[in-house]
Design goal:
Helix content is about 20%, strand content about 35%. It is an alpha+beta fold.
Length: about 160
């Protein structure tokens, strides 16, 4: 008996194409185009979002200073000698109505505040208030109680 080598033939070489050839697999080209389109669109969306955030930052969300306004002063204790001048040594008590307007789109907190009362260029009274919070786009009103004692070196808050 003669030995026969059983050999299987390889697939025909004419039907095989290497990956280096131009038209190797048409679906590879489509996948590459889809991937390119995806990343171009992601980059374009990112650029638009960054531009919008920068535009909002410099227009709408620009931080503005709060507006502090004295609405009124009420004198609660005052004695006059001849109708226009206070009696010597008399105590004067004032209530100052102060409002803080927050023009920003965000609230802010402030620490304790000091209101100073001047008369004729000289400090004659001072009032201290506690900390508070000014909400966004609102006014915050506060009252300051201030006492002045003529002839004394200290001021009653």
């Amino acid at each position: 008996m003669a030995k026969r080598d059983q050999v299987r033939p390889l697939a025909p070489a004419a039907k095989r194409q290497s990956s280096d050839e131009e038209g190797a697999c048409p679906h590879h080209k489509k996948r590459g185009r889809k991937c390119l389109k995806f990343w171009v669109s992601v980059t374009a969306i990112f650029v638009v979002l960054v531009t919008a955030v920068i535009a909002l930052r410099f227009t709408v969300f620009r931080v503005k200073d709060p507006v502090i306004k004295m609405n009124g002063v009420t004198i609660t204790k005052l004695e006059l000698s001849n109708g226009s001048t206070p009696k010597p040594g008399v105590n004067i008590s004032l209530i100052a109505d102060v409002s803080v307007k927050n023009p920003n789109f965000a609230s802010f907190k402030y620490s304790s505040t000091t209101t100073t009362l001047y008369y004729d260029g000289e400090m004659v009274g001072e009032a201290r208030n506690g900390p508070g919070q000014a909400r966004a786009k609102t006014d915050h009103e506060d009252e300051c109680f201030c006492g002045y004692h003529p002839g004394q070196d200290h001021v009653e808050p």
